[in-house]
């Protein structure tokens, strides 16, 4: 009887020792489970690629990816498949950016970030905004982010494809290139998104005048909302130089013609803006 009790005591002690040994590395167990589940998922979903890679080798690489990149590594290989392993390795010093892009955007992250060295470098330099801009706007974004930098990336990340093309056209047109490169204007696009970019595009001619641009940048919200008239600012900027010329004894006939033309233009612009505001309110 005593021998039986002794055996039971030894069994209980062994069991408690085993439990104690796995009590502390609970996080490691959870991570190991996540890795195993990811391997099973990828092997099943990407069976052909997994077979070509070799299941054992692929499993080992997934484990290494998880050790280096954590949850992003597992998310990347789940979304993109075994090719994520090769892309992460090929990215070298920019592997963190490649893996994060694939984890966030899947195949698009692989295509527009991980597979493109220039875009990888831009992503590394300007962060998640650049990644989102490059994935969202694709070939339109690369030259813009390269030229406009961090502020350009932030602006592009907040607008849709149509508005991205508008910004690209502004940047490529010599008449409006200065607008697209203006850091304050890019900040307006980043803050107001599509509404801000649409307004800038529709009023690019007026905003090419420095005084009008300054008035808009000082407080863009009322102009974008339609509660303040940009045409009035533009008209005032036409009249002021005329008044200065009169004070200096300029040709009265020429000035009179210019003044009438400016007032006529102002009336047309005010009528146009009033009509647009009424249409906007009616819709």
Overview of the structural elements:
The protein is mainly alpha-helical and about 280 residues long. The protein folds into three domains: about 1-105, no CATH class; about 115-200, no CATH class; about 230-283. Helix content is about 85%, strand content about 0%. It has 19 helices and no strands. It has helices at about 1-20, 25-45, 45-55, 55-70, 70-80, 85-90, 95-105, 105-115, 115-125, 130-135, 140-155, 160-170, 175-180, 185-200, 205, 210-220, 220-225, 230-245, 250-280. Helix 9 (about 115-125) packs across helix 10 (about 130-135) and helix 16 crosses helix 18. It is elongated. The relative contact order is 0.04.
Question: What low-confidence regions span 5 or more consecutive residues with pLDDT below 50?
Answer: 4-28
Rg measurement, Å? 31 Å
Q: Tell me how many strands there are.
A: 0
The number of helical runs is 19
Number of domains: 3
Major sheet, described briefly? Answer: none
**What percent of residues adopt helix (DSSP H or I)?**
over 70%
The oligomeric state is single chain
Considering the chains and any ligands shown, give keywords for the structure:
single chain; 283 residues; mainly alpha; elongated
Topology of helices and strands:
Blueprint: H1 2-21, H2 26-45, H3 47-53, H4 55-69, H5 71-80, H6 83-90, H7 95-105, H8 107-114, H9 117-126, H10 128-137, H11 141-157, H12 161-172, H13 177-180, H14 183-202, H15 204-207, H16 210-218, H17 220-225, H18 230-247, H19 252-282
Helix pairs in contact: 2-3, 2-4, 4-5, 5-7, 6-7, 7-8, 9-10, 9-11, 10-11, 11-14, 12-14, 16-18, 18-19
């Amino acid at each position: 009887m005593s021998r039986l009790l002794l055996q039971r005591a030894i069994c209980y002690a062994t069991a408690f020792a085993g439990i104690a040994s796995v009590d502390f590395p609970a996080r490691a167990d959870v991570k190991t489970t996540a890795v195993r589940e990811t391997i099973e998922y990828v092997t099943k979903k990407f069976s052909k690629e997994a077979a070509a890679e070799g299941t054992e080798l692929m499993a080992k690489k997934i484990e290494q990816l998880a050790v280096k990149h954590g949850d992003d590594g597992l998310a990347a290989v789940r979304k993109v498949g075994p090719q994520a392993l090769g892309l992460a390795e090929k990215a070298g010093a920019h592997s963190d950016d490649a893996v994060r892009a694939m984890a966030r955007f899947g195949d698009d992250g692989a295509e527009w970030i991980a597979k493109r060295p220039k875009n990888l470098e831009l992503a590394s330099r300007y962060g998640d905004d650049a990644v989102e801009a490059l994935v969202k706007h694709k070939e339109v974004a690369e030259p813009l982010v390269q030229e406009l930098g961090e502020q350009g990336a932030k602006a592009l990340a907040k607008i849709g494809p149509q508005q991205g093309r508008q910004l690209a056209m502004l940047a490529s047109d010599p008449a409006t290139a200065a607008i697209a490169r203006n850091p304050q204007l890019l900040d307006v696009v980043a803050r107001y998104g599509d509404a801000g970019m649409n307004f800038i595009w529709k009023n690019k001619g007026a905003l090419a005048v420095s005084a009008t641009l300054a008035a808009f940048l000082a407080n863009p919200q009322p102009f974008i909302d339609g509660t303040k008239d940009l045409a009035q600012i533009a008209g005032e900027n036409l009249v002021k130089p005329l008044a200065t010329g009169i004070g200096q004894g300029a040709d009265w006939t020429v000035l009179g013609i210019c003044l009438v033309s400016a007032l006529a233009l102002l009336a047309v612009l005010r009528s146009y803006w009033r009509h647009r505001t009424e249409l906007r309110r009616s819709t």
